[in-house]
From TrEMBL:
Main localization category: membrane
PANTHER family given in the database record: GLUTAMINE TRANSPORT SYSTEM PERMEASE PROTEIN GLNP (PTHR30614:SF20), MEMBRANE COMPONENT OF AMINO ACID ABC TRANSPORTER (PTHR30614)
Keywords recorded for this protein, A-Z: Amino-acid transport, Cell membrane, Membrane, Transmembrane, Transmembrane helix, Transport
Protein's membrane topology: Multi-pass membrane protein
Key word Zinc present: no
Record-linked Pfam families: BPD_transp_1
Keyword Cell membrane part of the UniProt annotation: yes
Transmembrane segments: 27-44, 75-97, 109-133, 139-160, 181-202, 248-266
Compartment list: Cell membrane
Protein known as: Amino acid ABC transporter permease
Source organism (scientific name): Streptomyces edwardsiae
Domain ABC transmembrane type-1, first and last residues per copy: 71-266
Family from the record: Belongs to the binding-protein-dependent transport system permease family. HisMQ subfamily.
Length: 278
């Protein structure tokens, strides 16, 4: 009996608390990450990487053309493609919300097709199939027009769904209030609903712009001239001429000059939107 009382009086051993377990798990993850970085740094042949990707003389030869020509064309292709995609996406979104059945069906078919096809096939279709189907016809703007159309067709499928979701996110009472003030359905949609929807969908639309910057590299499949080259084509051509990959690295850094600031803008807008909801 005395032995039993002694056992009961002994303090029971406690395991780690949930907070301690989380801290231990986090510490292990940091250790693994640091170990992986150190292993990579030790195993990599930095000399060969520098010779292949970081030749200063080759990089210097790329300026200012990499900015004044390649980056300028990349921005131009992306902005025009975004404009076409936004206009077409708005039309398809409204068709998707229409009470007319054929409009909804056509919009749904378009979205499913162009959202499912790789962007590469769309570029090939614009560059090869359209001239074969309509001999003697030229897309306005030449290569710039073709790229804007190809990027716009791809982007419109995604933008349409984004815009539709934004319109549906606007409270229905907004439309009812506008109608009670004498607005027609079309005028209420243009003046009241769509501006509010764009405030909601601005972050994902900006994110779509970032994606289009990368998709603009597919312009090479349209057969561009030297003056129409964008960053990827420009970098690949110089890499072939110099037998070195430094131009590709410089082209990649130029992409980051655009995409990183845009990404920061998207995150900032998302944070503001969340604050507004709170």
């Amino acid at each position: 009996m005395a032995d039993t009382e002694k056992l009961d009086l002994q303090p029971k051993k406690k395991g780690l608390t949930r907070r301690q377990k989380r801290g231990l798990s986090r510490g292990v993850q940091y250790v693994v990450f640091v170990a992986a970085v150190i292993a990579f740094a030790v195993a990599a042949d930095w000399g060969r990487l520098k010779n292949q990707f970081a030749q200063a003389d080759i990089a210097e030869r790329m300026f200012p053309d990499v900015i004044t020509l390649a980056l300028k064309n990349t921005v131009l292709y992306t902005v025009t493609g975004f404009a076409v995609g936004l206009a077409l996406g708005m039309l398809i979104a409204l068709m998707r919300l229409s009470s007319v059945g054929p409009y909804r069906w056509l919009a749904g078919i378009y979205i499913e097709i162009f959202r499912g096809l790789p962007a590469l096939l769309i570029f090939i279709f614009i560059g090869v199939a359209v001239p074969l189907a309509f001999p003697g016809t030229e897309i306005i703007g030449g290569t710039y027009g073709k790229v804007a159309l190809a990027l716009g067709l791809v982007a419109a499928a995604y933008m349409a769904e984004t815009i539709r979701a934004g319109i549906q996110a606007v409270p229905k009472g907004q439309m009812e209030a506008a109608r009670s003030l004498g607005f027609s359905p079309a005028r209420a949609m243009v003046s009241i609903i769509i501006p509010q929807a764009f405030r909601i969908i601005l972050p994902p639309l900006t994110n779509e712009l970032v994606l289009l910057f990368k998709d603009s590299s597919l312009v090479l499949f349209l057969g561009v001239t030297l003056e129409e080259r964008e960053l990827s084509k420009y970098g690949r051509d110089l890499a072939s001429q110099t037998a070195n990959s430094t131009p590709i690295l410089v082209a990649g850094l130029c992409y980051l000059l655009i995409t990183i600031p845009l990404g920061l803008v998207v995150r900032r807008m998302e944070a503001k939107a969340q604050e507004a909801v709170k």
